[in-house]
Write a structure and sequence with these properties.
Number of domains: 1
Oligomer: single chain
Structural class: alpha+beta
Strand content: 15-25%
Number of strands: 2
Distance between the termini: 39 Å
Number of helices: 5
Mean pLDDT: 79
Shape: elongated
Largest sheet: 2 strands, antiparallel
Radius of gyration: 21 Å
Order of helices and strands: HEHHHEH
Helix content: 40-55%
């Protein structure tokens, strides 16, 4: 790999990030003398169109068109949708973001 090119450095960074994320997900605590890896997980609900249509019907599915969490919350808040069945049809997706925390900053905080 050509390390002295921006693409080579980006590829190396991406591979290293995937290795660190994998280690954190398996329970390891990778760190060096300067920094420690921290993994933050974000959960986002998505709503399958077919199940959404079964519960709320064609009109609501058409109105939501792209059934994303923000739009569904707006429709529930406006009273156009009953929010109770949402928990049964939501699919949660997890996204993991890798953060490197400086050990020197942690000590001063």
């Amino acid at each position: 790999m050509l390390r002295d090119t921006p693409l080579g450095l980006q590829a190396e960074k991406d591979v290293l990030g995937m290795e660190i994320k994998g280690a954190r997900l398996s329970g390891a605590r990778p760190e060096c003398e300067l920094c420690r890896a921290r993994l933050q997980t974000t959960r986002t609900p998505t709503y399958p169109v077919d199940r959404f249509r079964e519960v709320y019907g064609d009109a609501a599915t058409f109105e939501a068109a792209r059934i994303d969490n923000r739009r569904v919350k707006e429709l529930v808040k406006a009273g156009d949708l009953d929010g109770a069945p949402l928990e049964n049809i939501a699919l949660m997706t997890d996204r993991h973001a890798l953060y490197l925390a400086s050990k020197t900053e942690e000590q001063t905080v």
